[in-house]
Amino acid sequence: MVTPAGLVVLTDRRSAAGPLDEVVQQAVRGGAAWIILRERDLPYAERAALAQRLRSLLPPGRLIVAGPDPLGGTAVHLAAADPLPAGIPLVGRSWHGVEEVSGVDYVTLSPIFPTSSKPGYGPALGVTGAAETRAPVPWLALGGVDSASRAASCAGAGAAGIAVMGAVMRAADPEGMARELAAAFAGGRADRSADPQPARVRVEGSVR
């Protein structure tokens, strides 16, 4: 099973600096390996059509749909209270250390850092707190990952990837922002692999 890793971008058409399709396309050019389609308030037919368009921008299977309905695809990301659907090859869930993860292939942990997309949401776990949750499946760091140093620190804490919304959606240059975050995360993963003491957690350039 291939699970999300690297830079994973969540959509938000309301905050996007341009048409959502174009912003996603630029993010993919910059290194976004996966896209999570949110937009759960759209009418079904409109959201399904959007999913089809976004799939054409990605390798097969790399579009994840938020909610239990994959909209004709193969991957979903569930909220904590969403039921586990049957017959979906790739299932992720928003996890806070207590939700059931049976049947789930990956989780997101949030918020890692304070986030302007959801002000007041928290408290922030920090990368150390996220690592200490000891997620039983690969985890993505979500919330406030808006700089190269933060992306690298998430990699140092053992995240499989970073899930980013506002930093890419609102960027004047989504491709450039995606490239910066993806490269920093990849560099952090390389540093972690080379570290003779991988239990240490790198935080914004320091080591704990």
Coarse structural class: alpha/beta
CATH topology: TIM Barrel
* SSE pattern: EHEHEEEEHEHEHHEE
Termini Cα gap: 32 Å
Low-confidence stretches: 198-208
Lay out the secondary structure.
Blueprint: E1 6-10, H1 20-30, E2 34-37, H2 44-55, E3 63-66, E4 75-78, E5 90-95, E6 106-109, H3 126-132, E7 139-142, H4 148-156, E8 161-164, H5 166-169, H6 174-194, E9 202-203, E10 206-207
Parallel strand pairs: 1-2, 1-8, 2-3, 3-4, 4-5, 5-6, 6-7, 7-8
Antiparallel strand pairs: 9-10
Helix pairs in contact: 1-6, 4-6
Structure description:
This protein is α/β, with parallel strands linked by helices and 208 residues long. It has one domain (6-207): TIM Barrel (Alpha-Beta Barrel). The protein is 31% helix and 19% strand. The chain contains six helices and ten strands, in the order E-H-E-H-E-E-E-E-H-E-H-E-H-H-E-E. It has helices at residues 20-30, 44-55, 126-132, 148-156, 166-169, 174-194; strands spanning 6-10, 34-37, 63-66, 75-78, 90-95, 106-109, 139-142, 161-164, 202-203, 206-207. The chain has an eight-stranded parallel beta barrel, surrounded by four helices. The chain has a two-stranded antiparallel sheet with strand order 9-10. Helix 1 (20-30) runs parallel beside helix 6 (174-194) and helix 4 packs parallel to helix 6. The longest helix has 21 residues, at 174-194. The protein is globular, with a radius of gyration of 16 Å. The relative contact order is 0.18. Mean pLDDT is 91; it is low at 198-208.
